[in-house]
């Protein structure tokens, strides 16, 4: 059986990484909400909300590459295909905030789109 001791260097590196994640999370929250803005789901009527969910500062290069390879965008170029009506969308905790996705990491705009969009089953 292999001994899996954590060295002081590993411990400090992990604590530092947690601090960066905390900073990234707070930046993400401040970028995705807190200001008076239009309702998030106005994309269905043609107008779009004014907030952005493109801050990827807390993501790894691989997670950013995944977003890029799936061509994620905050504003859907496809009529009727929005993240908020995608089967993979994880709803935002409140209005004017970014949601999530079961497939890609990071903030997801309700009016966004990626090439893996799948119609939500009611």
UniProtKB/TrEMBL annotation:
Name the UniProt record assigns to this protein: Twin-arginine translocation signal domain-containing protein
Keywords per UniProt: 4Fe-4S, Electron transport, Iron, Iron-sulfur, Membrane, Metal-binding, Transmembrane, Transmembrane helix, Transport
Keyword Transmembrane helix (UniProt): yes
InterPro entries according to UniProt: High_potential_FeS_prot, HIPIP_sf, TAT_signal, TAT_signal_bac_arc
PROSITE patterns: HIPIP (PS51373), PROKAR_LIPOPROTEIN (PS51257), TAT (PS51318)
Range of residues in the leader sequence: none
GO molecular function: 4 iron, 4 sulfur cluster binding; electron transfer activity; metal ion binding
């Amino acid at each position: 059986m292999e001994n899996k001791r954590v060295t002081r260097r590993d411990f400090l590196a992990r604590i530092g990484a947690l601090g960066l994640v905390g900073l990234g999370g707070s930046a993400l929250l401040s970028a995705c909400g807190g200001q008076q803005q239009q309702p998030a789901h106005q994309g269905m009527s043609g107008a779009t909300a004014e907030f952005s969910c493109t801050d990827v500062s807390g993501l790894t290069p691989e997670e950013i590459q995944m977003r890029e390879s799936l061509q994620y965008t905050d504003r859907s170029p496809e009529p009727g295909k929005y993240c908020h009506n995608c089967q993979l969308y994880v709803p935002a905790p409140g209005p004017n905030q970014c949601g999530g996705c079961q497939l890609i990491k990071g903030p997801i705009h309700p009016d966004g789109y990626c090439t893996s969009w799948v119609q939500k089953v009611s």
